[in-house]
Amino acid sequence: MNPCHPRLSALLVFAFAASAFAADPKLAPLFNGKDLTNFQADGAAEFWRVENGVLVGENNAAQKGHVLWTKKEYQDFVIEFDARWKGTTPRGVDTGVEMRKPHIQLQLGVSGSLRVDMTGSFYTGGKPAYPEAGQAKNAKELLRPEGEWNTFRIQAKGDTFICWINGKKASEYTDKKFNGAAPLGLQIHGKVEMKCEYRNVRIAEL
Length: 206
Known about the structure:
Blueprint: H1 6-23, E1 28-29, E2 48-51, E3 54-58, E4 66-74, E5 77-85, E6 94-99, E7 104-109, E8 122-123, H2 139-142, E9 150-157, E10 160-165, E11 168-174, E12 182-188, E13 195-205
Antiparallel strand pairs: 1-13, 2-3, 3-13, 4-12, 5-9, 5-13, 6-7, 6-12, 7-8, 9-10, 10-11
């Protein structure tokens, strides 16, 4: 049969799509859209609430920070979620997803130390805090305007961490140091007037 035959081409496309779909991990809801089930609720009510299926995080009057941790620990996983945020001061919003031991974070919003938007970059807390290899240098091209929803996907597998923004790869970082299973955490940075929102939070262990 001619390899360029339309029917064969269509079958190959279908087979490729099916195999790709089968290889994609089945994601299950981590946030149920109703309450903080699956999260450690101690002290969380002052900072986190659910509104119309959206998980909303906000500083208290003293601008104290908080991290909303999952009850379960994760090592190799894929997590997807929609997020949006909007700063009310020049400092901007500083949030993100904490993972593994020792902690590594996927930054969302403005870095508290650099005062620069580092969305999609991996924060290690070392020197430098944001290794160049793990920076999302094309994030501005991938992100929608401030205040709109953006879809993020994070994969932690072995010693490699990857972030996608709105379906496109934004950053990849490899470091064998961050190898311990740990709860995942959604951060509200202290000393910042900020509000962040998360929805459609789904996860799969690898």
